[in-house]
Write a structure and sequence with these properties.
The complex is a heterodimer of chains A (235) and B (249). In chain A, 49% of the residues lie in helices and 11% in strands. Chain A is an alpha/beta fold. Chain A has a 5-stranded parallel beta sheet, sandwiched between helices. The radius of gyration of chain A is 18 Å and the shape is globular. With 249 residues, chain B is of the alpha/beta class. Chain B is 49% helix and 11% strand. The longest helix of chain B is centred in the middle third of the chain and has 25 residues. Chain B is globular, with a radius of gyration of 18 Å. The chains are: A alpha/beta (235), B alpha/beta (249).
Chain lengths: 235, 249
């Protein structure tokens, strides 16, 4: 059975995946700015950002009341709202939607929490298939160094503290991220990721991404993607 | 369905739950909107408690996690069908793991006003993939009994008009955009829900009760059928006493 629904519309969907500290958010941000300045209609959607579901997510995190199953379902609800009210209509209209994390995040993270592999894949079957899914492959230590070096305290669920892996937050985070990394690596082939070596310089990673994107989008607007007409100013 | 026994998971085991520890009884009341489910739950609860059982009742959108969020989302009338299905499933999962399973471990009789079947029926009425939602909701426990209060749409209409006096946006399925008229939309939407629930009678082993009858006749019928379930009376009675003693202190 296919993982997702095929994208039969004018627009394109580009997603980035990887563990925390892999640099994927930086890359998708650079890419979306470049696409916009090239005249394309670009929209951006971030994991866990639906205003409709925000209250429940906040409550669950604050009171530490999530189980692996409710954590998975609330994040799927958040994703569904963004899919139904934002991503899908924009892709239909011909925009390029860039998503920072997609269903693969749930496939990796929820399974690392103990949720069934097949169950969580079925859960997201309503999603549309991305045209491009970039996976930022990074060694665990490099990612951990980036996160633990320059950031605020780790949060409870982010560190996988709900799983009782370790008493120490940093130790728990290490183990949990390691499990997530294993899940990403295990699915990389199954889902057809474009793999980017995330230990390369930022500019080099971006160059590789753009090369793949240009190939996918084709030379011009004949693919149906919305673009500002030649000669007009870009908003 | 799938020859599962009561208090086993349908298709998906919840992480960290050992179903062999569960010893209470799980009783579900199903049926469309305005069919009289909550009236029957209130009567059943009183009756079961008088009989000495420890009772927990639980219903949709009452979870600590998602109850408020669902109500807020519904007020905005911007809830897409898949988002709605998943939000209700999250609400159900929270109640299952944090209320229903602990109560079953303690030997309670758990009375549920609408189970996964209503979530599934609403999804099916909105043309979502049946196998998708069956798999999503597959972590539900098989109940000891599901009583399906069955009535035709005309009966529901008269109960809405006589009882609540107005048609609700969501109960009328206005999000399906059948048209601007709530009465007509209610009829079409509820007919779809009834059809979806009817299709579950066999696979999910529903016990059908004619809900066109007067309230007390339905109640008598439910009592008769529940009486055959051999509820764990003595154990629960001692527990209730324990709770009462604690409360007295």
């Amino acid at each position: 059975m296919p993982l997702f629904k095929p994208n039969r519309y004018r627009g394109k969907l580009i997603v980035v995946e990887g563990i925390d500290g892999s640099g994927k958010s930086t890359q998708i941000s650079l890419l979306s700015h470049w696409l916009r300045s090239s005249g394309y209609a670009v929209a951006f959607s971030e994991w866990n950002s639906s205003p409709l579901v925000r209250q429940a997510t906040r409550r669950g995190k604050k009171k530490e009341m999530f189980t692996p199953t409710t954590f998975s379902l609330i994040h799927a609800t958040d994703f569904a709202d963004r899919m139904e009210s934002y991503i899908l209509p924009l892709v239909k209209a011909g925009a390029i939607v860039c998503a920072d994390r997609y269903a693969y995040t749930a496939f990796a993270r929820d399974v690392a929490r103990g949720v069934g592999r097949r169950w969580v894949r079925n859960l997201y079957r309503f999603a549309i298939h991305p045209n491009l899914a970039f996976y930022f492959r990074v060694p665990l230590d490099v990612a951990l160094g980036r996160i633990l070096g320059g950031r605020d305290a780790l949060k409870y669920y982010e560190a996988g503290m709900d799983l009782g892996l370790a008493r120490d937050v940093e130790e728990s985070f290490r183990i949990f991220q390691g499990r997530i990394l294993d899940e990403y690596e295990a699915m990389a082939e199954e889902v057809g990721f474009h793999i980017i070596d995330a230990s390369l310089p930022i500019e080099e990673q971006q160059r590789q991404m753009r090369e793949v994107v240009v190939r996918e989008l084709g030379a011009g607007p004949e693919g149906g993607v919305l673009r500002v007409p030649e000669g007009e100013a870009v908003a | 369905m799938l020859n599962r026994k009561p208090l086993e998971f349908y298709t998906e085991a919840l992480p960290g739950v050992d179903t062999s520890e569960l010893q209470g009884k799980l009783i579900v009341i199903e049926g469309p909107d305005a069919v009289g489910r909550s009236t029957q739950i209130a009567l059943l609860r009183q009756w079961l408690e008088r009989e000495g059982h420890a009772v927990l009742d639980s219903g949709m959108a009452r979870s600590a996690l998602a109850g408020k969020g669902i109500k807020m989302a519904k007020e905005g009338n911007t809830l897409g069908p898949i988002t709605m299905t998943l939000f209700y499933t999250a609400d159900f999962a929270d109640r299952l793991e944090n209320e229903i399973i602990p109560a079953l471990r303690a030997g309670f009789v758990v009375l549920i006003d609408r189970y996964i079947y209503s979530i599934m029926a609403r999804a099916i009425a909105r043309n979502e993939d049946r196998r998708w939602i069956e798999h999503v909701a597959g972590f539900a426990l098989v109940p000891h009994a599901t009583y399906y209060l069955h009535a035709n749409v005309e009966t529901l209409v008269s109960r809405v008009v006589l009882g609540r006096g107005a048609f609700d946006y969501w109960e009328s399925g206005m999000d399906l955009r059948f048209g601007p008229d709530k009465y007509e939309s209610f009829i079409r939407y509820q007919a779809r829900l009834i059809r979806a629930l009817d299709s579950m009678v066999k696979p999910y082993d529903f016990s059908v009760i004619d809900a066109e009858q007067p309230v007390m006749r339905i109640f008598a019928e439910l009592r008769k059928r529940i009486g055959k379930l051999s509820l764990p009376r003595t154990a629960a009675r001692e527990r209730t006493r324990g709770v009462a003693a604690k409360a007295a202190v």
